[in-house]
Design brief:
The structure holds two protein chains of two kinds. Chain A is of the alpha/beta class. Chain A contains 26 helices and 20 strands. Chain A has five domains: 17-149, 3-Layer(aba) Sandwich (Glutaredoxin); 171-381, NADH-ubiquinone oxidoreductase 51kDa subunit (Rossmann fold); 391-483, Ubiquitin-like (UB roll) (Roll), CATH 3.10.20.600; 486-572, de novo design (two linked rop proteins) (Up-down Bundle); 586-642, Alpha-Beta Plaits (2-Layer Sandwich). The longest helix of chain A has 18 residues, at 505-522. Chain B has four domains: 6-78, Roll (Ubiquitin-like (UB roll)); 90-209, 2-Layer Sandwich (Alpha-Beta Plaits), CATH 3.30.70.20; 213-560, Rossmann fold (3-Layer(aba) Sandwich), CATH 3.40.50; 575-660, Glutaredoxin. In chain B, 34% of the residues lie in helices and 16% in strands. Chain B has a five-stranded mixed beta sheet with strand order 2-1-5-3-4, with helices on one face. In chain B, strands 20-22-21-23-24 form a five-stranded mixed beta sheet, covered by helices on one side. A four-stranded parallel beta sheet of chain B has the order 11-10-13-16, with helices on both faces. Classes of the chains: A alpha/beta, B alpha/beta.
């Protein structure tokens, strides 16, 4: 050891864990308030404050940080309760969430007005507040053990295990739960080749969408000799509806740092960047705090864990450009250039950030790394399918009862995800209508739409690719029967069009024209040539684009064309939207039996398309009608129908 | 290393892989010209136009420009899928392109037009989606028409990679993406040095020289005007390319006749001005060299380089030769002499120059080159504009008789002619210096010929050892100058030309598909030199006469020399807003960098000034504005007596001031 490291404080992980375990034993209950973005938005912080208030009022004591000072035996039990802010627990639909340990009770949709009851009945008297427990929609019974809630029961949360349970402000909680032990092992006990081999053996593939074997990526970077190498964590999560990475960065930022340290040891990097979009302020601030804490404890910086190795991490905020999730664009952005992808090769493993060999992995991939080292590659491989090992997180949204963040092993079917974890499909009014679903859009704007025939398809990288979708970063949007698939395709097309960087012609102009063609279809201007042109163009964009954004941008269109062609045909040839969602294709009709001939519709019609006279039912002239819906809204007798 | 020969099969033909950087080059070697908009061998590979797609067996469809040739590759450049894709890409481009082709100045040599025709695009199946943008008329040299831009990025890369200026870049996303200047200003209002290299790479009409054809015609047709014209050296070896000649073919005689037929009164040679430049610059150099003063001497013939130096190296302006460029020496002498000789007013004498260069248009309008508002050179047209005028006049350049220059300003030595090639100025000056220092020395100084962009040589003349550097391309110049500044290199004379290869590759020259066009034009100039009677400028009898009869020292200085201005926008030095003599109590500095400005530095400044005025402190406070202090995220930053306040508000500033008082 050199002199300089002796002066620096290096954390003793084992001792920290021990102290923490001792200290936490002194609390009667640990109250965990979910402080993920969803619960926060629904008032989690006022619930947090209310708990403090109520507990004080009852003359009891509550700590907000674990008191880790060593106390004498009789001095213990200074506090009755420990109140903790956690990261996202995933069950966002049911938030704000309050979890009580050791009872393992999860209270859902908690309001500040419920807090007194929870304190009085559960914390003091050890009773359940049944109405706040999760109620199974079928059996209507309240689930007392949170692990038995179908939403959690069907999952296999290994990467997310700590996310949502540990205190985001207390690094020691992470350490007490085994955190940083694997980082230390990688620094002190493993060689770079050993780490690469372990990760390669685990079968871990990139969770950001590409699915490239992580171990191989690391090995390719490792073999490139360079004085400086970089590790970049790609936290530029931009898919509409996806929030997996955000939850990990907010809920367990240390796991991301630990994964980066291990990656750095594997490739001999000395500097790391976490690239987070600036729209994730909570993730940014929690990462920054985590980095500072890690530095203070000798986990980051020079001589980490007392070794002769150095590794430090910096947070870079991106401006929220979707394309910056593409690795070469992200690298350009860190370098201070316009975030535009560049051609590969050279790959970042050879020439990445500032021209140096660079490993760039997604948040989820990196957060999984410590889990793999802990479980061992052998054990990790047992999860998942032949080609896709381990678990994957998905952001479950759309017409599904339980929206939220889930983690399941690869190979889980859509039926299990939507029906069991998701609690079934809901209609437009939010009522559960079973698994009678129409489609799932998987993989965000780069993914595709899957249909009923894929309900029992084991989800993994290759199966999804074969059916024209992709794992992507894991957005999973469920759609019920009332969804117009052409509009869904248009929605994603609009997104990629807006987010295209504008560099290559096929993506820039191609997505714009695809959008225009979809508009033609939706607005009733399309003919037979439109569909052919759309398909030809989609294939050109798919093959011809420079980067992944463009290459995958046509997927929503191609997959809906494949599985819902009849809907396109109805729009194009019959000028009809089967789900009645496309305004321009709606026809309004007066039901003669119901019409009271009041004439209100005719007066409201801006183009005088409705004719009639007193006593005679009114008639809409389809030729003149501009489908504005004014008559439909005006009619007091429901005598006008659209469709 | 394995010396096994590597080959690839391209469209059923086996091709040897040698040093080709990419598959596109290899395909070209197989005599197949893949369509491309964004590939230029001298700038970085961009891969954005997606036109050079080829089908590689086992790997699928990939862009040739960004694929490395590999042994055993089997490549098809022309499958039905690729053909359809290429056509579709052209349709996509055209659908967002202002298709006013018939009136577009680029029509005829527009690559979009040509490739569309070549690929047989017959109709555009997509909706026309282009939006109208205003033309950028702000520059004297370059006209930007964003409506024509296809976003290939060639101009962006050439400006930053070759010229190290970076006046253009992309902004906005997706379909809104645009090539813009900083803060969307006019190209004439930003750091653009007018070199016109962007024009040379622009495949469409989005960047064009700012034509002065109509002004020239107007003067020519105005009976009250005497119109004289000067032809720059590089024009004579390039104009022919517009009329089917090979690059480097000299068409001086044809040009002279054509100009006479068009109605120009006198046809002169800019090389006469170049001979004058050699004498003035040669004497200046020898003078500085003997005094060891302001060395190295940088040449000043290239107006793009001059503007570049004014912008980025204001501290080196004293090293720049004070000599005007040949164009401006010519203009000044012409107007001075001919007005007297012909007995007409300055206004009635119109000097037109035909230049290979767009920056010359800018140069001619500099205030230094005007007398009572009347410019020494009235109109500057490029080689391209001349070709348009000849075609408009219906003159058949192939059949026209050969003319010769009018005297006296049409007489030139070979030294004046080689000015058009990078290294020519140095060679010409050395011939003169050699001649002056060592009577009878008539070396050619060939060391400075050739295609290299940086040519360095040590030359012994008599007992003197001169270290010279010849550099072309401003990015190359920048590297060299930075080394000189750091003391890593020492030179006595540095010749800088903004365009790679010199004026023969200027922004107003024809765009050639021939790989060797620039060196062929250069060769053409050196051939011209050989054919001429004299090779040292001081041997030009008319120049001798000029010095003997009219040009005394003062007059030469007045007409042939100039001064430069510091064009640096952001000075490193702070600006003192409120200066206080002796007993200052307060010293306040506010950062006016962009970030602080956006975060309210301006408002804060106004508020603090108001406060100081109210408190009657203004005469005791020194107020300084500084430029970016790199605390951008913490702005606005204001410091009071050295104490820096981040995220400063009026209240915080006042609190600090009160504390001190």
């Amino acid at each position: 050891m050199t002199g300089s490291i002796l002066t620096k404080q290096i954390i003793d992980l084992d001792k920290t864990r021990e102290i923490y375990k001792d200290a936490s034993a002194s609390y009667k209950s640990r109250i965990v308030i979910c402080a993920g973005t969803g619960c926060m938005a629904n008032g989690a912080m006022s619930i947090y404050n209310k708990f403090r208030e109520v507990i004080y009022e009852r003359g009891l004591k509550v700590a907000v940080m674990l008191d880790k000072e060593e106390h004498k035996e009789d001095d213990r039990c200074d506090n009755d309760f420990l109140l903790v802010e956690s990261g996202c627990q995933g069950f966002c639909q049911m938030g704000p969430l309050v979890t009580l340990y050791p009872q393992k009770i999860l209270y859902t949709k908690v309001k500040t007005s419920d807090v007194e009851e929870i304190v009085d009945r559960t914390l003091i008297k050890n009773e359940y507040v049944d109405r706040l427990l999760y109620e199974c929609p079928d059996s209507k019974h309240h689930v007392r053990d949170m692990d038995k809630i179908p939403f959690y029961e069907r999952q296999n949360r290994i990467m997310l295990k700590l996310c949502g349970h540990i205190n985001v402000h207390d690094a020691d909680e992470y350490i007490a739960n085994g955190g940083y032990f694997m980082a230390r092992k990688s620094v002190l006990e493993m060689t770079d080749t050993q780490i690469c081999k372990e990760i390669l053996d685990s079968g871990l593939r990139g969770r950001g969408g590409g699915g490239f074997p992580t171990g191989r990526k690391w090995d390719l970077t490792r073999i490139n000799e360079s004085d400086v190498k970089y590790v970049i964590c790609n936290g530029d999560e931009g898919d509409p509806g996806a929030f997996m990475d955000r939850c990990v960065m907010e809920g367990n930022p240390h796991s991301v740092l630990e994964g980066m340290i291990i990656a750095a040891m594997a490739v001999n990097a000395t500097k790391g960047y976490v690239y987070v979009r600036t729209e994730y302020p909570l993730a940014v601030s929690r990462l920054k705090t985590a980095i500072r804490t890690a530095r203070e404890n000798g986990i980051l910086g020079e001589h980490i864990f007392g070794s002769d190795r150095s590794f430090d991490i910096e947070v870079m905020e991106g401006a929220g450009a979707f394309v910056c999730g593409e690795e070469t664009a992200l690298i350009a952005s860190i370098e201070g250039k316009r975030g535009m992808p560049s051609i590969k090769p050279p790959f970042p493993a050879e020439k990445g950030l500032f021209g140096k060999p660079t490993v760039i992995n997604n948040v989820e991939t990196l957060a999984t790394v410590p889990v793999i080292l802990e479980m061992g590659a052998e054990e990790y491989r047992k999860l998942g399918t032949e080609t896709s090992k381990g678990t994957k997180t998905f952001a479950l949204t759309g017409h599904v009862a339980n929206t939220g963040l889930i983690e399941v092993p690869f190979g889980t079917t859509l039926r299990e995800i939507v029906g069991e974890i998701g609690g079934g499909v809901i209609d437009d009014d939010g009522n559960n209508c079973g698994v009678d679903f129409k489609a799932v859009q998987i993989g965000g704007p780069s993914g595709g739409c899957l249909t009923q025939e894929h309900l029992d398809l084991p989800l993994d990288y290759d199966n999804l690719r074969d059916v024209g979708a992709m794992v992507g970063s894991g957005g999973l949007v469920v759609m019920n029967q009332n969804t117009c698939m052409v509009q869904i395709a248009r929605f994603f097309m609009q997104f990629t069009q807006n987010e295209s960087c504008g560099k290559c012609v096929v993506c820039r102009e191609g997505t714009r024209q695809m959008l225009a063609l979809l508009d033609d279809i939706i607005e009733g201007r399309a003919d037979a040539a439109t569909l052919d042109l759309l398909e030809e163009l989609a294939n050109t964009v798919k093959i011809g684009s420079l980067c992944g954004l463009g290459k995958t941008a046509p997927n929503p269109v191609l997959s809906t064309l494949k599985y819902f062609r009849d809907e396109y045909i109805a729009h194009v040839y019959n000028k009809r939207c089967p789900t009645g969602n496309c305004d321009a294709l709606k026809t309004y009709r007066v039901i003669v039996e119901k019409c009271k001939a009041c004439g209100l519709c005719a007066r409201k019609c801006p183009v005088d398309a409705i004719e009639g006279s007193k006593g005679v039912p009114y008639v809409i002239n389809i030729e003149k009608c501009i489908r504005c819906g004014a008559c439909y809204t005006a009619c007091k007798f429901d005598a006008i129908v659209k469709g | 290393m394995d010396m096994k020969t590597r080959t690839a099969v391209i469209d059923n033909v086996t091709v040897l892989i040698e040093e080709e950087k990419n598959l596109l080059e290899l395909v070209r070697k197989a005599n197949i010209e893949l369509p491309t908009f964004c590939y230029h061998s001298e700038i970085s590979v961009y891969g954005a136009c997606r036109m050079c797609m080829v089908d590689i067996e086992g790997r699928g469809i990939l862009p040739a420009c960004s694929t490395k040739p590999e042994d055993g590759m089997v490549v098809s450049t022309n499958t039905s899928q690729i053909r359809e894709m290429r056509k579709m890409i052209i349709e996509l481009m055209l659908a967002s392109h202002d298709q006013s082709c018939t009136t577009c100045p680029k029509s005829g040599d527009c690559r979009l037009q040509n490739i569309a025709k070549q690929l047989g695009v017959e109709k555009i199946r997509f909706k026309q989606v282009n939006t109208h943008h205003e033309l950028d008329l702000s520059s004297d040299a370059i006209l930007r028409d964003p409506n024509k831009c296809i976003l290939c990025g060639d101009c962006v890369r050439v400006c930053s990679e070759i010229q190290s200026v970076g006046a253009l870049d992309f902004a906005y996303r997706g379909a809104q993406a645009k090539v813009v200047t900083s803060f969307n200003k006019g190209i004439g209002e930003v750091e653009c040095v007018n070199c016109g290299q962007c024009i040379k790479v622009c495949p469409v009409g989005a960047l064009m020289p700012k034509y002065q054809i109509n002004d020239v015609w107007k003067s020519v047709h105005d009976k009250s005007k005497t119109v004289v014209v000067q032809i720059a050296p590089a024009v004579r070896v390039a104009l022919g390319e517009y009329f089917g000649y090979k690059p480097g073919t000299t068409t001086t005689g044809q040009i002279i006749s054509a100009l006479r037929r068009m109605g120009f009164d006198k046809v002169y040679d800019t090389c006469f001005g170049a001979d004058l430049t050699v004498l003035e610059e040669g004497r200046e150099f020898l003078d500085r060299y003997s005094k060891n003063e302001n060395l190295p001497l940088f040449t000043s013939c290239c107006p793009a380089w001059v503007k570049y130096a004014e912008q980025y190296y204001p501290d080196l302006l004293s090293h720049l030769s004070t000599c005007r460029s040949p164009q401006q020496m010519f203009g000044a002498i012409c107007k001075d002499q001919l007005v007297n000789d012909l007995g007409i007013s300055r206004e009635d004498l119109v000097v037109v120059s035909i230049m290979p260069c767009t920056a010359k248009k800018f140069e001619a309008r500099r205030d230094e080159f005007k007398v009572d508002g009347n410019p020494d050179v009235d109109h500057v047209i490029t080689t391209k504009e001349l070709s348009i005028m000849i075609k408009e006049s219906g003159i058949d350049l192939n059949k026209i008789e050969l003319g010769s220059f009018d005297m006296p300003f049409g007489f030139t030595t070979g030294a004046g002619v080689i000015f058009g090639s990078s290294g020519g100025v140095s060679e010409a000056v050395l011939r003169f210096a050699g001649h002056t220092l060592q009577k009878g020395l008539t070396g050619e100084f060939r060391q400075f010929r050739g295609n290299d962009r940086v040519k360095v040589s040590e030359i012994e003349i008599g007992d003197k050892k001169l270290r010279l550097a010849v550099v072309s391309g401003l990015a190359n110049a920048k590297k060299l100058i930075d080394k000189i500044r750091k003391g890593e290199e020492h030179y006595d004379l540095v010749e800088v030309m903004a365009c790679c290869g010199g004026c023969i590759n200027g922004g107003g020259q024809p765009v050639s598909n021939e790989i060797n066009a620039v060196s062929d034009r250069s060769k053409g100039l050196y051939d011209n030199d050989k054919m001429l009677q004299f090779h040292v400028s001081s041997d030009n009898p008319y120049i001798k006469q000029l010095y003997n009869e009219t040009l005394d020292h003062d007059k030469a200085h007045k007409l042939l020399h100039t001064a430069y201005e510091n064009r640096r926008r952001i000075l490193q030095d702070d600006i003192i807003i409120n200066k206080v003599p002796e007993d200052k109590k307060l010293s306040i500095t506010i950062c006016f960098g962009t970030s602080c400005f956006l975060r309210g530095a301006q408002t804060l400044y106004t508020q603090v000034m108001e406060y100081l005025t109210e408190r009657d402190l203004l005469d005791k406070t020194e107020f300084t504005a500084s430029f970016c202090g790199k605390q951008c995220k913490k702005g606005p930053v204001l410091s009071v007596n050295g104490k820096s306040i981040e995220h400063c508000t009026l209240e915080m500033a006042v609190a600090e001031i009160e504390k001190i008082l």
